[in-house]
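Data availability (excerpt). All sequences and predicted token strings are deposited with the supplementary files. A representative entry, Alpha/beta fold hydrolase, is shown inline so that the format can be inspected without opening the archive.
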Amino acid sequence: MQTGMLPRIMAVLLAVCGLGACTTIVVNESTMIPSFGRGQLLGQLPNGHELVEHEFERSDGERAYGLAVTADADLPSILVYGGNMQSADGSIHRVVDNLRHLDANLFFFDRRGQGRSTGSPGVEQGMDDAVEVLDYVREQVAGPIILHGFSLGGFEAAHVAGHRAVDAMVLEATATNVDDFARQAVPWFAKPFIRIQVADELRGFDNRDILAEYDGPLLLIAGGNDRQTSPRMMKDLYEASPSAQKQLVLVKNAHHNNVMRREQARESYARFLRESGLVQD
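Structure token line:
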């Protein structure tokens, strides 16, 4: 999800439609969570914050690597689970730019086999890894922790919230399940030529099932022009949660990758944290 999967699907669509043929696109673990190397470290930091590298050993001995931009351990901390082609090195600047208006510590970790983290990527293992990341972050801070899941990271954030108590959760431009996402990625004109085949290992994750059990503070932020994770899916997630403190924000003129760059999204995020009692006015 995010920038990795859709371009590959679209490249196939263009080739297939040009030939007037039919084809099957297989969506599997390597599609959703590819392996890639290191990026570049962040340069500029917000005033009063410092960039801290974090590394810990997972339960199976592999190493997890992450970056944090922190000011005070007592502040709220936002743990961001990113899209499928995002690394700590390459994405921490975007996290800071999007969330620097909040008085919070920011954490972002590489998935297994991505960036500087060791091991081989995998969906089911990645969900367990996401829980270990939260457990590690909780040892580093004293204040409340907000989970923020973007795109593919929305599945991880929801999974973690289903296994650990968290203070709040924010889901940005994510999906209900992989089947729905894959179908959304195929435009109407190509549907007669394309059959999407989702691997069995990806079919067991549906965010609606987890949100049906989540009753904590919940903010869902969707782009009004998002063609990868449609607002309809975000509405389905909103309706699945029994939380009495839930909000759905549809950001005007935003697509999949720029939702948090919009002032509407940033103001809604800050207001959500205030109304949840996690930050002071």
